[in-house]
Amino acid sequence: MKVEQIKDNGEEVRLRVFASAAEMSKAFTDGLDAFVVQYQMDQLEGESSLEKINNALGEEDGKAAVYNAVINYLVPFALEKQGTMPVSTYGIESDETPEPDKMFSFDMTVLVKPEFELSSYKPVKVEIEPKPEVNEADIDEQISMLVRQFSAAQQGVQPDDASLQIPEVTDEWVADNMSPMGIATVAELRDRFRATSEEELENRYAQAKMAAAMDEYAKRFEGEISEKMIEVMTQELYETFLAQLSQEGISLDAFFAQQHLTEEEVRANLATQAKMQLLQGFILDAIFRHEALKLEPSDMIAAMRNIAPGREEETFEAMQKSGRSTLLKEGASRMKAAGWIMANTEFVVAE
Q: For residue 5, which of 104, 98, 81 has the smallest C-alpha distance?
């Protein structure tokens, strides 16, 4: 692969990428394989990934998907060749049609990832609220909702139907309805709900502690996140938002009507979120560098579990084959830095 720098304005770099015939062959095998795994098409009909994509999407949409998959495969290798770490890549253009066993070239713009520092790396001290406890009344309510749902399904009515007959929750009812889940008594049912609630509260409390610590580190952030970075990240979040709506079968206009929002308001909210994500990422990068943290295999496994729970092995292989190991390492290093923050922050529980 050959990469030429066309333009550099200090923040954005315009590159021209030339992929060899051999690299295009791999793009049409490994690149499409990675696409199929990413979108969970691997169990669909078709002997090759190309056939699976075309069978699933049709000829026209399949052609567009293949183009995107091939480009997405080539981009990380071009960045590695150039030695550039991106915040984002965009503006991909080509007058050519990608084909296997044929040279291909395209242009792209890279928003270069900057390195920021903190004014101090001394561990912070933050005050937090006491850890919440599981309320027995909440467990009562969860059991009530469960019984209502079960009864509605058994009686063929909606859970809020006035005709719904709700049985008393006894050991007999639990044994009859919950035994497939290994629950035989009311006490065991309460224990299961209590354990689930405690785990959820523990996760929320850890998130609250991390957020409080990050607020303190944000005060030490030196530098300025550019409007261009916020703009690009906002657009990425907006496109993800549109994809989620599409998966749920909700039109954009319907969403705006339901939520009483405008596109401008949604974009403004996403811009705030984008700036926060960028800030937190740069803080974690700075801590990882300053503390000279090292990645272990367990860190990579944890990052994979975070990216694709339940599909770690397939996703790891796909990311390796598609040149996205750098992205995986970035995620793992930030998780490692977050762990360092949690381990070194002094949390003081408010009286």
A: 81
